[in-house]
Amino acid sequence: MEGRRYLKRIADRLLQERLRSSGAVLIEGPKWCGKTATATRASKSQLFMQDPDMTVSYLSAADTKPSLLLKGETPRLLDEWQSAPILWDAVRFMVDQRGKPGQFILTGSAVPKDDAVQHTGTGRISRLMMRPMSLFESLESNGSVSLKSLFDGHIDVEAVSDLSIEGIASALVRGGWPASIGDDESIALRHAVDYVEAIINADISRVDGVEKNPARVRALMRSYARNIATTATMRTIRDDIALGDADASISEKTISQYLVALDRIFVTEDLPAWNPALRSKTAIRSSVKRHFVDPSIATAVMRLTPFRLLEHFEYFGFLFESLCTRDLRIYADAIDGQVFHYRDASGLESDTVVCLNDGRWAPIEVKLGARAIEEAAEHLLELKAKVDTGKMNEPSFLMILTGGEFAYRRKDGVLVVPIGSLKD
Predict the structure, then answer these.
(1) pTM for this structure?
(2) Residue 412: CB partners within 8 Å, gap ≥ 6?
(3) Which of 43, 106, 113, 353 makes an SS bond possible with 81, Cβ 3.0 to 4.6 Å?
(4) What is the pLDDT of residues 177-186, one digit of tens each?
Protein backbone atom coordinates (compact mmCIF):
# COMPACT_ATOMS: atom_id res chain seq x y z
CA MET A 1 0.00 0.00 0.00
CA GLU A 2 1.43 3.39 -1.01
CA GLY A 3 2.80 5.35 1.91
CA ARG A 4 2.77 2.35 4.28
CA ARG A 5 5.99 1.82 6.24
CA TYR A 6 7.92 -1.21 5.07
CA LEU A 7 8.56 -3.65 7.90
CA LYS A 8 11.73 -5.67 7.51
CA ARG A 9 11.21 -9.25 6.47
CA ILE A 10 13.33 -12.31 7.17
CA ALA A 11 13.10 -12.91 3.42
CA ASP A 12 15.09 -9.69 2.79
CA ARG A 13 18.28 -11.35 4.01
CA LEU A 14 17.51 -14.71 2.40
CA LEU A 15 16.91 -13.01 -0.96
CA GLN A 16 20.25 -11.21 -0.82
CA GLU A 17 22.01 -14.48 0.01
CA ARG A 18 20.37 -16.24 -2.95
CA LEU A 19 21.18 -13.38 -5.33
CA ARG A 20 24.87 -13.68 -4.43
CA SER A 21 24.90 -17.38 -5.27
CA SER A 22 22.34 -17.87 -8.08
CA GLY A 23 21.70 -16.31 -11.44
CA ALA A 24 18.02 -15.83 -10.59
CA VAL A 25 15.75 -16.18 -7.57
CA LEU A 26 12.09 -17.20 -7.67
CA ILE A 27 10.03 -15.88 -4.74
CA GLU A 28 6.87 -17.95 -4.38
CA GLY A 29 3.98 -17.54 -1.98
CA PRO A 30 0.36 -16.48 -1.58
CA LYS A 31 -1.04 -13.23 -2.94
CA TRP A 32 -0.75 -10.24 -0.59
CA CYS A 33 2.09 -11.73 1.46
CA GLY A 34 4.56 -9.01 0.43
CA LYS A 35 6.55 -10.68 -2.36
CA THR A 36 6.43 -7.71 -4.71
CA ALA A 37 7.40 -5.16 -2.04
CA THR A 38 10.36 -7.27 -0.91
CA ALA A 39 11.49 -8.02 -4.46
CA THR A 40 11.10 -4.40 -5.60
CA ARG A 41 13.38 -3.18 -2.81
CA ALA A 42 16.07 -5.64 -3.89
CA SER A 43 15.79 -4.96 -7.64
CA LYS A 44 17.14 -2.19 -9.86
CA SER A 45 14.57 -2.49 -12.66
CA GLN A 46 11.07 -3.94 -12.71
CA LEU A 47 8.54 -5.51 -15.06
CA PHE A 48 5.02 -5.85 -13.62
CA MET A 49 3.21 -8.40 -15.78
CA GLN A 50 -0.20 -7.52 -14.31
CA ASP A 51 0.05 -3.78 -15.00
CA PRO A 52 -3.34 -3.26 -16.71
CA ASP A 53 -1.91 -0.61 -19.05
CA MET A 54 0.86 -2.90 -20.27
CA THR A 55 -0.33 -6.49 -19.93
CA VAL A 56 -1.32 -6.89 -23.60
CA SER A 57 2.00 -5.45 -24.80
CA TYR A 58 3.99 -7.61 -22.40
CA LEU A 59 2.17 -10.80 -23.37
CA SER A 60 2.66 -10.00 -27.05
CA ALA A 61 6.39 -9.46 -26.49
CA ALA A 62 6.58 -12.71 -24.53
CA ASP A 63 5.02 -14.58 -27.45
CA THR A 64 7.32 -13.07 -30.09
CA LYS A 65 10.65 -12.23 -28.43
CA PRO A 66 10.70 -12.78 -24.64
CA SER A 67 14.29 -11.55 -24.35
CA LEU A 68 12.93 -8.02 -24.85
CA LEU A 69 11.27 -8.23 -21.44
CA LEU A 70 14.55 -9.17 -19.79
CA LYS A 71 16.37 -5.99 -20.76
CA GLY A 72 17.06 -3.66 -17.83
CA GLU A 73 19.40 -3.01 -14.95
CA THR A 74 20.02 -6.05 -12.76
CA PRO A 75 18.72 -7.53 -10.58
CA ARG A 76 15.62 -7.20 -12.78
CA LEU A 77 12.26 -8.05 -11.24
CA LEU A 78 9.72 -10.02 -13.27
CA ASP A 79 6.61 -9.77 -11.12
CA GLU A 80 3.94 -12.50 -11.52
CA TRP A 81 6.03 -14.13 -14.25
CA GLN A 82 3.64 -17.09 -14.52
CA SER A 83 1.32 -14.89 -16.63
CA ALA A 84 3.81 -15.64 -19.44
CA PRO A 85 5.42 -19.01 -18.57
CA ILE A 86 7.88 -18.69 -21.47
CA LEU A 87 9.73 -16.16 -19.31
CA TRP A 88 11.02 -19.03 -17.14
CA ASP A 89 12.96 -20.62 -19.97
CA ALA A 90 14.03 -17.20 -21.25
CA VAL A 91 15.47 -16.34 -17.83
CA ARG A 92 17.19 -19.70 -17.58
CA PHE A 93 18.79 -19.22 -21.00
CA MET A 94 19.87 -15.63 -20.23
CA VAL A 95 21.42 -16.70 -16.92
CA ASP A 96 23.47 -19.28 -18.83
CA GLN A 97 24.51 -16.67 -21.39
CA ARG A 98 25.61 -14.06 -18.86
CA GLY A 99 27.22 -16.43 -16.38
CA LYS A 100 26.80 -14.02 -13.46
CA PRO A 101 24.80 -14.23 -10.21
CA GLY A 102 22.01 -11.85 -9.23
CA GLN A 103 20.51 -11.25 -12.67
CA PHE A 104 16.77 -11.73 -12.10
CA ILE A 105 14.13 -11.91 -9.39
CA LEU A 106 10.87 -13.64 -10.31
CA THR A 107 7.76 -13.54 -8.14
CA GLY A 108 4.74 -15.80 -8.43
CA SER A 109 1.54 -16.38 -6.49
CA ALA A 110 0.59 -19.46 -8.51
CA VAL A 111 2.47 -22.51 -9.74
CA PRO A 112 2.07 -22.98 -13.52
CA LYS A 113 0.95 -26.27 -15.00
CA ASP A 114 3.64 -28.95 -15.12
CA ASP A 115 3.99 -28.66 -18.90
CA ALA A 116 4.12 -24.84 -18.96
CA VAL A 117 7.93 -24.70 -18.67
CA GLN A 118 10.45 -26.91 -20.42
CA HIS A 119 13.24 -26.91 -17.81
CA THR A 120 13.37 -27.05 -14.02
CA GLY A 121 15.90 -24.23 -13.66
CA THR A 122 18.05 -26.36 -11.34
CA GLY A 123 21.43 -24.73 -10.76
CA ARG A 124 20.29 -21.46 -12.26
CA ILE A 125 17.11 -20.38 -10.47
CA SER A 126 16.96 -20.60 -6.66
CA ARG A 127 13.54 -20.88 -4.99
CA LEU A 128 12.49 -18.88 -1.94
CA MET A 129 9.15 -19.50 -0.23
CA MET A 130 7.60 -16.37 1.29
CA ARG A 131 4.66 -16.56 3.66
CA PRO A 132 2.59 -13.93 5.47
CA MET A 133 4.47 -12.19 8.26
CA SER A 134 5.53 -13.95 11.45
CA LEU A 135 4.78 -12.30 14.79
CA PHE A 136 8.43 -11.20 14.98
CA GLU A 137 8.18 -9.51 11.58
CA SER A 138 4.91 -7.78 12.52
CA LEU A 139 6.65 -6.52 15.70
CA GLU A 140 4.33 -8.48 18.03
CA SER A 141 7.04 -10.85 19.21
CA ASN A 142 9.91 -9.12 20.97
CA GLY A 143 12.37 -11.69 19.60
CA SER A 144 14.18 -12.22 22.89
CA VAL A 145 14.56 -15.98 22.20
CA SER A 146 16.29 -16.98 18.96
CA LEU A 147 15.63 -20.36 17.35
CA LYS A 148 19.12 -20.26 15.80
CA SER A 149 20.71 -19.59 19.20
CA LEU A 150 18.82 -22.52 20.72
CA PHE A 151 20.18 -24.84 18.03
CA ASP A 152 23.64 -23.41 18.69
CA GLY A 153 23.39 -24.55 22.32
CA HIS A 154 22.31 -21.39 24.12
CA ILE A 155 19.40 -22.94 25.98
CA ASP A 156 19.41 -21.11 29.32
CA VAL A 157 16.49 -18.93 28.28
CA GLU A 158 15.01 -16.15 30.37
CA ALA A 159 12.55 -13.77 28.74
CA VAL A 160 9.20 -12.09 29.15
CA SER A 161 6.54 -11.68 26.45
CA ASP A 162 4.05 -8.84 26.61
CA LEU A 163 1.76 -10.44 24.00
CA SER A 164 -1.50 -11.29 25.77
CA ILE A 165 -3.96 -14.02 24.88
CA GLU A 166 -6.26 -11.28 23.55
CA GLY A 167 -3.37 -9.98 21.43
CA ILE A 168 -2.72 -13.46 20.06
CA ALA A 169 -6.40 -13.82 19.12
CA SER A 170 -6.33 -10.49 17.29
CA ALA A 171 -3.08 -11.29 15.48
CA LEU A 172 -4.37 -14.72 14.51
CA VAL A 173 -7.65 -13.50 13.05
CA ARG A 174 -5.99 -10.54 11.34
CA GLY A 175 -3.25 -12.73 9.87
CA GLY A 176 0.24 -11.85 8.77
CA TRP A 177 -0.84 -9.92 5.67
CA PRO A 178 1.37 -6.81 5.41
CA ALA A 179 -1.52 -4.59 4.32
CA SER A 180 -3.34 -5.43 7.58
CA ILE A 181 -0.51 -4.70 9.99
CA GLY A 182 -1.20 -1.51 11.93
CA ASP A 183 -4.70 -1.03 10.52
CA ASP A 184 -7.83 -0.53 12.55
CA GLU A 185 -8.98 -4.02 13.59
CA SER A 186 -12.26 -3.95 11.63
CA ILE A 187 -10.40 -2.99 8.44
CA ALA A 188 -7.68 -5.58 9.04
CA LEU A 189 -10.24 -8.36 9.53
CA ARG A 190 -11.95 -7.32 6.30
CA HIS A 191 -8.72 -7.91 4.36
CA ALA A 192 -8.67 -11.60 5.32
CA VAL A 193 -12.33 -12.02 4.35
CA ASP A 194 -11.71 -10.29 0.98
CA TYR A 195 -8.75 -12.61 0.39
CA VAL A 196 -10.89 -15.70 1.02
CA GLU A 197 -13.70 -14.45 -1.22
CA ALA A 198 -11.21 -13.85 -4.05
CA ILE A 199 -9.95 -17.42 -3.67
CA ILE A 200 -13.44 -18.89 -3.73
CA ASN A 201 -14.88 -16.84 -6.58
CA ALA A 202 -11.93 -16.40 -8.92
CA ASP A 203 -8.40 -17.45 -8.02
CA ILE A 204 -8.96 -21.19 -7.60
CA SER A 205 -10.56 -21.45 -11.07
CA ARG A 206 -8.09 -19.07 -12.75
CA VAL A 207 -5.03 -21.07 -11.70
CA ASP A 208 -5.74 -23.96 -14.08
CA GLY A 209 -8.58 -22.60 -16.22
CA VAL A 210 -11.00 -25.20 -14.84
CA GLU A 211 -14.22 -23.72 -13.47
CA LYS A 212 -14.93 -24.76 -9.90
CA ASN A 213 -18.18 -24.57 -7.98
CA PRO A 214 -17.84 -21.68 -5.47
CA ALA A 215 -20.26 -23.32 -3.03
CA ARG A 216 -18.14 -26.48 -2.97
CA VAL A 217 -14.90 -24.52 -2.65
CA ARG A 218 -16.37 -22.65 0.31
CA ALA A 219 -17.60 -25.89 1.89
CA LEU A 220 -14.17 -27.48 1.42
CA MET A 221 -12.37 -24.52 2.95
CA ARG A 222 -14.77 -24.46 5.90
CA SER A 223 -14.13 -28.15 6.50
CA TYR A 224 -10.39 -27.54 6.32
CA ALA A 225 -10.86 -24.77 8.87
CA ARG A 226 -12.81 -27.08 11.18
CA ASN A 227 -10.06 -29.71 10.85
CA ILE A 228 -7.12 -27.32 11.15
CA ALA A 229 -3.97 -28.80 12.75
CA THR A 230 -5.38 -32.35 12.58
CA THR A 231 -4.55 -35.35 10.39
CA ALA A 232 -8.05 -35.47 8.90
CA THR A 233 -8.25 -37.83 5.92
CA MET A 234 -9.95 -37.14 2.60
CA ARG A 235 -12.85 -39.30 3.77
CA THR A 236 -13.14 -37.33 7.01
CA ILE A 237 -13.23 -34.07 5.07
CA ARG A 238 -15.79 -35.45 2.62
CA ASP A 239 -18.06 -36.66 5.42
CA ASP A 240 -17.66 -33.38 7.29
CA ILE A 241 -18.71 -31.42 4.20
CA ALA A 242 -21.75 -33.63 3.67
CA LEU A 243 -22.75 -33.30 7.31
CA GLY A 244 -22.43 -29.52 7.24
CA ASP A 245 -24.12 -28.91 3.90
CA ALA A 246 -25.70 -31.78 1.95
CA ASP A 247 -26.17 -29.49 -1.08
CA ALA A 248 -22.40 -28.94 -1.27
CA SER A 249 -21.49 -32.64 -1.03
CA ILE A 250 -18.34 -33.50 -2.94
CA SER A 251 -16.46 -36.67 -3.91
CA GLU A 252 -12.97 -37.50 -2.62
CA LYS A 253 -11.66 -37.21 -6.20
CA THR A 254 -13.03 -33.69 -6.54
CA ILE A 255 -11.71 -32.75 -3.09
CA SER A 256 -8.27 -33.90 -4.22
CA GLN A 257 -8.50 -31.83 -7.41
CA TYR A 258 -9.60 -28.74 -5.50
CA LEU A 259 -6.81 -29.18 -2.97
CA VAL A 260 -4.23 -29.38 -5.75
CA ALA A 261 -5.53 -26.04 -7.01
CA LEU A 262 -5.40 -24.52 -3.51
CA ASP A 263 -1.83 -25.80 -3.13
CA ARG A 264 -0.85 -24.21 -6.43
CA ILE A 265 -2.01 -20.77 -5.27
CA PHE A 266 -0.33 -21.29 -1.87
CA VAL A 267 -3.54 -21.25 0.18
CA THR A 268 -3.04 -24.62 1.87
CA GLU A 269 0.30 -25.81 3.23
CA ASP A 270 0.00 -29.17 4.94
CA LEU A 271 2.64 -30.29 7.44
CA PRO A 272 4.40 -33.56 6.49
CA ALA A 273 5.15 -36.34 8.96
CA TRP A 274 8.63 -36.85 10.41
CA ASN A 275 10.20 -40.29 10.06
CA PRO A 276 13.08 -40.67 12.53
CA ALA A 277 15.14 -43.72 13.41
CA LEU A 278 13.57 -45.29 16.52
CA ARG A 279 14.91 -47.74 19.08
CA SER A 280 11.81 -49.93 18.71
CA LYS A 281 9.69 -50.94 15.71
CA THR A 282 6.86 -48.56 16.52
CA ALA A 283 4.79 -47.75 13.42
CA ILE A 284 4.96 -44.05 12.51
CA ARG A 285 1.87 -42.37 11.09
CA SER A 286 2.55 -40.76 7.71
CA SER A 287 -0.56 -38.58 7.40
CA VAL A 288 -0.06 -34.86 6.86
CA LYS A 289 -1.46 -32.27 9.25
CA ARG A 290 -3.97 -29.90 7.67
CA HIS A 291 -2.95 -26.25 7.60
CA PHE A 292 -3.58 -23.08 5.64
CA VAL A 293 -0.56 -20.91 4.84
CA ASP A 294 -1.96 -18.46 7.41
CA PRO A 295 -4.51 -19.24 10.16
CA SER A 296 -6.52 -16.12 9.31
CA ILE A 297 -7.79 -17.97 6.23
CA ALA A 298 -9.52 -20.41 8.58
CA THR A 299 -11.07 -17.70 10.75
CA ALA A 300 -12.11 -15.66 7.69
CA VAL A 301 -13.91 -18.55 6.01
CA MET A 302 -15.61 -19.31 9.36
CA ARG A 303 -16.34 -15.58 9.91
CA LEU A 304 -14.79 -15.63 13.39
CA THR A 305 -13.80 -12.49 15.29
CA PRO A 306 -11.15 -12.36 18.05
CA PHE A 307 -13.95 -12.09 20.63
CA ARG A 308 -15.69 -15.22 19.34
CA LEU A 309 -12.39 -17.06 19.27
CA LEU A 310 -11.84 -16.32 22.94
CA GLU A 311 -15.25 -17.89 23.64
CA HIS A 312 -14.21 -21.16 21.94
CA PHE A 313 -10.91 -21.87 23.67
CA GLU A 314 -10.50 -25.46 22.47
CA TYR A 315 -10.75 -24.41 18.82
CA PHE A 316 -8.51 -21.43 19.62
CA GLY A 317 -5.88 -23.99 20.64
CA PHE A 318 -5.91 -25.65 17.21
CA LEU A 319 -5.63 -22.29 15.48
CA PHE A 320 -2.82 -21.28 17.83
CA GLU A 321 -0.95 -24.41 16.78
CA SER A 322 -1.43 -23.36 13.15
CA LEU A 323 -0.14 -19.86 13.95
CA CYS A 324 2.95 -21.33 15.63
CA THR A 325 3.48 -23.68 12.69
CA ARG A 326 3.45 -20.70 10.31
CA ASP A 327 6.02 -18.83 12.39
CA LEU A 328 8.25 -21.88 12.90
CA ARG A 329 8.29 -22.48 9.15
CA ILE A 330 9.43 -18.90 8.56
CA TYR A 331 12.10 -19.10 11.25
CA ALA A 332 13.27 -22.57 10.12
CA ASP A 333 13.67 -21.37 6.53
CA ALA A 334 16.04 -18.68 7.82
CA ILE A 335 18.36 -21.28 9.40
CA ASP A 336 18.24 -23.87 6.62
CA GLY A 337 15.62 -26.06 8.23
CA GLN A 338 12.22 -27.63 7.70
CA VAL A 339 9.21 -28.32 9.94
CA PHE A 340 7.40 -31.65 10.37
CA HIS A 341 5.06 -33.31 12.88
CA TYR A 342 5.35 -36.66 14.61
CA ARG A 343 2.76 -39.24 15.62
CA ASP A 344 3.17 -42.97 16.11
CA ALA A 345 0.87 -45.94 16.62
CA SER A 346 1.11 -45.64 20.41
CA GLY A 347 -0.42 -42.15 20.25
CA LEU A 348 2.81 -40.35 21.14
CA GLU A 349 3.10 -37.13 19.17
CA SER A 350 4.93 -33.86 18.81
CA ASP A 351 2.99 -31.01 17.24
CA THR A 352 6.07 -29.88 15.32
CA VAL A 353 9.64 -31.04 14.80
CA VAL A 354 12.18 -28.57 13.40
CA CYS A 355 14.90 -30.37 11.45
CA LEU A 356 17.96 -28.55 10.14
CA ASN A 357 19.62 -29.84 7.00
CA ASP A 358 22.86 -30.50 8.92
CA GLY A 359 21.11 -33.20 11.00
CA ARG A 360 20.20 -31.19 14.11
CA TRP A 361 16.59 -31.44 15.24
CA ALA A 362 14.24 -30.38 18.02
CA PRO A 363 10.68 -31.48 18.86
CA ILE A 364 8.31 -28.64 19.81
CA GLU A 365 4.92 -29.05 21.46
CA VAL A 366 2.42 -26.18 21.15
CA LYS A 367 0.17 -25.36 24.09
CA LEU A 368 -1.92 -22.20 24.31
CA GLY A 369 -2.48 -22.37 28.08
CA ALA A 370 -0.33 -23.39 31.05
CA ARG A 371 -2.41 -26.37 32.19
CA ALA A 372 -1.10 -28.73 29.50
CA ILE A 373 2.60 -27.91 29.94
CA GLU A 374 3.32 -30.85 32.29
CA GLU A 375 1.83 -33.42 29.93
CA ALA A 376 3.59 -31.85 26.95
CA ALA A 377 6.95 -32.08 28.73
CA GLU A 378 6.36 -35.77 29.43
CA HIS A 379 5.62 -36.38 25.73
CA LEU A 380 8.79 -34.62 24.65
CA LEU A 381 10.95 -36.58 27.07
CA GLU A 382 9.31 -39.83 25.97
CA LEU A 383 9.95 -39.01 22.31
CA LYS A 384 13.60 -38.20 23.08
CA ALA A 385 13.96 -41.61 24.73
CA LYS A 386 12.38 -43.35 21.73
CA VAL A 387 14.71 -41.91 19.11
CA ASP A 388 17.77 -44.03 18.30
CA THR A 389 20.59 -41.58 18.97
CA GLY A 390 23.08 -44.15 17.68
CA LYS A 391 21.72 -43.39 14.21
CA MET A 392 20.65 -39.77 14.78
CA ASN A 393 21.83 -36.77 16.74
CA GLU A 394 20.48 -36.13 20.23
CA PRO A 395 17.79 -33.41 20.03
CA SER A 396 19.31 -29.93 20.29
CA PHE A 397 16.56 -29.02 22.76
CA LEU A 398 12.99 -29.86 23.78
CA MET A 399 10.53 -26.97 23.70
CA ILE A 400 6.96 -26.14 24.61
CA LEU A 401 5.75 -23.11 22.65
CA THR A 402 3.03 -21.29 24.57
CA GLY A 403 0.71 -18.32 24.63
CA GLY A 404 2.05 -17.41 28.07
CA GLU A 405 4.25 -14.69 29.47
CA PHE A 406 7.55 -16.22 30.65
CA ALA A 407 10.36 -18.10 28.90
CA TYR A 408 12.37 -20.41 31.14
CA ARG A 409 14.15 -23.76 31.37
CA ARG A 410 12.49 -26.40 33.52
CA LYS A 411 14.40 -28.69 35.92
CA ASP A 412 13.97 -31.56 33.44
CA GLY A 413 15.64 -29.43 30.72
CA VAL A 414 12.48 -28.75 28.72
CA LEU A 415 12.23 -25.16 27.53
CA VAL A 416 8.99 -23.19 27.86
CA VAL A 417 8.91 -20.29 25.39
CA PRO A 418 6.06 -17.85 24.60
CA ILE A 419 5.39 -17.33 20.90
CA GLY A 420 5.55 -13.62 21.74
CA SER A 421 9.27 -13.89 22.48
CA LEU A 422 10.44 -16.13 19.60
CA LYS A 423 12.33 -15.19 16.43
CA ASP A 424 14.50 -16.95 13.83
Answers:
(1) 0.94
(2) 377, 381
(3) 106
(4) 999 988 778 7
